[in-house]
Amino acid sequence: MIGVIGISYKTAPLEIRELFSFPKDEIVPFSELLQQETDIADLVLISTCNRTEIYFSQDKHDNQTAFELIYEAIKKFKGITDHCWQYFYHRSNAGAVRHLFEVVSGLDSLIIGEDQIIGQVKEAYITCTELALTDAVLMRLFQKSFEAGKRVRTETGIKLGITSVSSAAVEMCVNLLNGVADKSVLLVGAGETGNLALQNIHKKGVKQIGVANRTIEKAEKTAAKYNGMTISFDTFGKYLHGFDIVMIATSSATPVITAEMVKQNQLVRPGHKQVYIDLSVPRNIETSVAELENVEVLGVDDLQEIVKQTTENKKESAAKAHLILDEVVADFSEWLASRSLRPAISTITANFQAINQEELSTYRKVNTPEMQEIVDDYAQHLTQRYTRLLIKNLKNLTDNGKNIDSLKIINDLFKFD
């Protein structure tokens, strides 16, 4: 069974999603707990600002039991006692395959055609593979998903226009401020998301740029691209008043910018209007900051108008993308189905060969070498012919592995003692 269980912007608000966010350093301890609790060891865990999803491969439990066990393991790991099942979705086999391909292609993103998601999924897959958490099925599945994502982006116009949450947030910021060419911006967190946001706002004309990051070398590298200044992460809170726009994207589990911090900066520069853009999950800006005068806070869930417009503009491209996914899903399903026949084919072949050798051993004791050779050739010919016939019938009966209802009976039938 291939399965996915997850939570996303489609099923849960930000305050719920952030409870189930997984930083990279939690993957190993969570996988250990999951194996201990469920006996499921093969997985890829994806956690972004808009989704947390666990893809897995297992044959220990029926589908529903597997989903329920993983859900309970997630809650246990996160220390959550509230009932949250209603926020989670789960899909199995072809449904899970299709869902992953849509995610990687940007069809399931808040911003249709989002570019950043394919890099995030690749990073999650590589991390879990390097940690020996993926089996052959998951490896093939994710490699196919990257093929699907590449085809969709090259064969359709889905990547035109706004293609990321950060670019949409910047667009909204530009609208709020009637342009940003004369504004200054501070970026807190120089990771992929922060760099993308800074790149987008720089294209809009912003020239005065400051960068703060826990690793100072990374901040310096980012600031240098835009001839900007570097601010120590430990002290950036003292300089908020010097910027019109503050963008933050870190992996902190708690707010980095607090209401008290912003209030203190307002005392230095009274009446100064500011826009804060929070691209983090969990949120990095205290919710009460939005209640302060002269402050506008934008988060990943505040982009509905831009999302609606982008979706409308990309309807035709999305339709073409779904046709491409039909092909790639069918290709992967064919591979997976044929793979399910391997145990039965191996059993049939091995057991017929074993019976052949066992029976021939009797004849070898009583016949001349010449007669033995004749009998050996005939027995081998007969064994191979019946093996091929049975394998052909097996493929026809199961539609080349797609119809697995009778597969267990067939496997049991050819397990000779």
TrEMBL record:
Residues at the site labelled Important for activity: H99
Swiss-Prot/TrEMBL catalytic activity: (S)-4-amino-5-oxopentanoate + tRNA(Glu) + NADP(+) = L-glutamyl-tRNA(Glu) + NADPH + H(+)
Pfam family, one: GlutR_N
Binding-site positions, substrate: T48, C49, N50, R51, S109, E114, D115, Q116, Q120
Binding residues annotated for NADP(+), in chain numbering: G189, A190, G191, E192, T193, G194
Catalytic site: C49 (nucleophile)
One Gene Ontology term of the molecular function aspect: NADP binding
Quinate/shikimate 5-dehydrogenase/glutamyl-tRNA reductase domain boundaries: 177-306
UniProt keyword annotation of NADP present: yes
Ranges for domain Tetrapyrrole biosynthesis glutamyl-tRNA reductase dimerisation: 320-415
Superkingdom as given in the UniProt entry: Bacteria
InterPro entries in the record: 4pyrrol_synth_GluRdtase, 4pyrrol_synth_GluRdtase_dimer, 4pyrrol_synth_GluRdtase_N, GluRdtase_CS, GluRdtase_dimer_dom_sf, GluRdtase_N_sf, NAD(P)-bd_dom_sf, Shikm_DH/Glu-tRNA_Rdtase
E.C. code: 1.2.1.70
UniProt pathway: Porphyrin-containing compound metabolism; protoporphyrin-IX biosynthesis; 5-aminolevulinate from L-glutamyl-tRNA(Glu): step 1/2
Domain Glutamyl-tRNA reductase N-terminal, residue spans: 5-156
Family under the similarity heading: Belongs to the glutamyl-tRNA reductase family.
Domain text: Possesses an unusual extended V-shaped dimeric structure with each monomer consisting of three distinct domains arranged along a curved 'spinal' alpha-helix. The N-terminal catalytic domain specifically recognizes the glutamate moiety of the substrate. The second domain is the NADPH-binding domain, and the third C-terminal domain is responsible for dimerization.
UniProt miscellaneous comment: During catalysis, the active site Cys acts as a nucleophile attacking the alpha-carbonyl group of tRNA-bound glutamate with the formation of a thioester intermediate between enzyme and glutamate, and the concomitant release of tRNA(Glu). The thioester intermediate is finally reduced by direct hydride transfer from NADPH, to form the product GSA.
Assembly and binders: Homodimer.
Protein name (database record): Glutamyl-tRNA reductase
Organism: Aquipluma nitroreducens
